[in-house]
Amino acid sequence: MAAGEEVLVVGAGVVGASVAYHLTRLGHERVTVLDSRGPEALPGSTGLAPGFVGQLSATPELAVLAKDGVATYRALSAAAADEPAFWQVGCLEVATTEERLAQAHQDVAHGRGLGIEARVLDAAEAVALAPALVDAERALGALHIPSDGAADPAALTRLLVAAAESAGARFRWRTPVQALEADRGRLVGVRTGTTGELLRADRVVLATGIWGPVLAAGVGVRLPMVDVQHPYVFTAERPELDDTPIDAPIVRYPDHAVYTRRHGRRYGLGSYAHRPLPWEPSATRDSAEVPFQEADFGSALAEARRLVPAFRQASPGRRLNGVFALTPDELPLVGPVAEVPGLWVAEASWVTHAAGVGRQVAAMLLETGRPAVDPARLAPGRFDHWSDRKVHEAALGHYRGIYDAH
Predict the structure, then answer these.
(1) pTM above 0.85, yes or no
(2) Domain boundaries 7-47+154-223+329-386, corresponding CATH code
(3) What pLDDT, on a 0 to 100 scale, did the predictor assign at position 405?
(4) At residue 101, what are phi and psi to the nearest 5 degrees?
């Protein structure tokens, strides 16, 4: 790609902002990012994300992307003392069964192979690190990953936007993209606003999260991702807590599909221990938050609250039902769309992997060096030979596997 070519990024959430940030860091200034909202609001998945940044994964590619995230978020946060966005407080994966404790010992060796240091703590050590979040009566020990951390996704996105703008990127807020525009099979730009203005570009990167498939379908492209609903709940503000965003590790309970952390004066908790609930995106919906259904999540969250000490007697606070995307292999969709030259995607990525995805896209677009992950592993067309039904079943299978175990 020539240095003077225009890149349009659709979506200014954490992924789109990361793409712009990495493009400008590599010296490409002709970058414009479009978003339907204003800079003060985050109605998409970014604004709902709980901000867990865990690096250890059974999939090496996810570990590579997450390690990039930790390094990038640390650097950004350190440079912005007035608005920290990432805290490297570590992660505890609590074992409540002997099988999980044995797995923790195996994970230490697995992590070492990925360049991620970890060790197994006994129950008392784990409780001492996060007494409000670790169940002292049920914990047998925990895997401790000191380099993991927690992010404020909104603050993190603001830092990425500011850094990209200072390096030459333009952000056009309140500019909804109605459709992608192709000419003789090649993407030439996007239609925006109520007037249908055409913005031309040499490359268009879709980073719209759950709305990606809607726009891609307009030029005959199927993005192999399925949107699913997921609950996250908070306690009411706790009088004993100060404004420190987080001062203890993030905590996961793999045996129970529960994860929890501190958010300033509140604690937050999520659970996967419910049946998978797919959701169909719509071009008319402007938020990734959908109505919270007690019938769908109530029993799973009640069990989770009994597990986490901070939630047992706490008054309930806000309840979220946020939608995020899954792919058949749990890897994001990153790279060019073969059947429509000029169209690129950076989709189905969590905050954890957003920095790595942005770097991957920028390196591929500008053809600078070797991407951190084999492009074929993340290619948007890797499931082109699959039927819609197979894509749907395989993607939901990752969620269903956790649910069925409970």
Answers:
(1) yes
(2) 3.50.50.60
(3) 42
(4) -65, -40
